[in-house]
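TASK: fixed-backbone design
INPUT:
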């Protein structure tokens, strides 16, 4: 074991750091539960609801103690991001022996991408905790509109949409193949395995749909279509039998939220 891996281990296994990082999974679970709930509410006529990260945080902020929960979320998400960033820079402490340099590079890149996501979660939670949160769907549509003003910008949108579809495909594969079990320590119950399988597949499909909408928005010059996860859910709801499909999608995201609670306990760190 080299010095960088040893350092990664010391960082990840610091008891205070680990507890806060694991709390990031709990907060992620709460956010996904709320997103799934909002998607189901949209299926039953809640047209003004926003079924995405910002909608979930708006919902949380409006509950008793919600602001305190958001401040806790800021810390938890930040710790999770720093843990993943340490893995990206120093390598994984839980899986120190990579099969090859290429495999290790891929693992570090994935850790970096996850770190970026959790930094974004922390920033969003910080905004809503201060009462200054913004709709992620509106921000996405605004950015899309600005990029559409030039050919390079449109190309960037299409490439970005393809990357997001790829991320969704990775989540789908991870659930379908049950590769997520490699991230867990010890024996897990059949219930946890089912939660992970269904949750990853559902989240993968939702992410891929959001990426597809970005591509459609860019190619059809309709930036309002690029509203992220909320747009994907509402587009699904507008289809024949959309309400039923939206309820199923919402339950899938809720399942991922429940699996996030299991990750808080069982993920290798």
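OUTPUT:
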């Amino acid at each position: 074991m080299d010095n960088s891996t040893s350092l990664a281990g010391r960082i990840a296994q610091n008891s205070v750091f680990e507890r806060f990082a694991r709390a990031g999974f709990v907060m992620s679970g709460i956010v996904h539960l709320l997103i799934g709930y909002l998607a189901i509410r949209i299926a039953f006529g809640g047209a003004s609801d926003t079924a995405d990260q910002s909608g979930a945080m708006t919902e949380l902020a409006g509950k008793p103690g919600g602001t305190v929960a958001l401040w806790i979320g800021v810390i938890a998400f930040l710790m999770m991001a720093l843990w993943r960033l340490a893995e990206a820079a120093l390598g994984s402490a839980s899986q120190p022996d990579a099969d090859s340099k290429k495999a290790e590079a891929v693992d570090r890149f994935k850790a970096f991408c996850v770190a970026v996501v959790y930094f974004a979660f922390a920033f969003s939670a910080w905004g809503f905790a201060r009462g200054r949160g913004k709709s992620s769907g509106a921000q996405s549509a605004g950015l899309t509109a600005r990029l559409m003003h030039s050919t390079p910008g449109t190309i960037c949108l299409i490439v970005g949409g393809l990357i997001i579809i790829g991320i969704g495909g990775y989540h789908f594969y991870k659930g379908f193949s049950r590769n997520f079990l490699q991230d867990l320590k010890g024996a897990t119950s059949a219930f946890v395995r089912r939660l992970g399988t269904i949750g990853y597949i559902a989240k993968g499909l939702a992410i891929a749909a959001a990426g597809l909408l970005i591509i459609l928005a860019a190619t059809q010059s309709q930036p309002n279509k690029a509203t992220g996860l909320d747009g994907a859910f509402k587009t699904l709801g507008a289809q024949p039998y959309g309400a039923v499909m939206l309820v199923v999608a919402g339950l899938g995201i809720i399942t991922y939220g429940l699996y996030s609670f299991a990750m808080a306990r069982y993920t290798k760190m």
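COMMENT: Residues 190-219 form the longest helix (30 residues).
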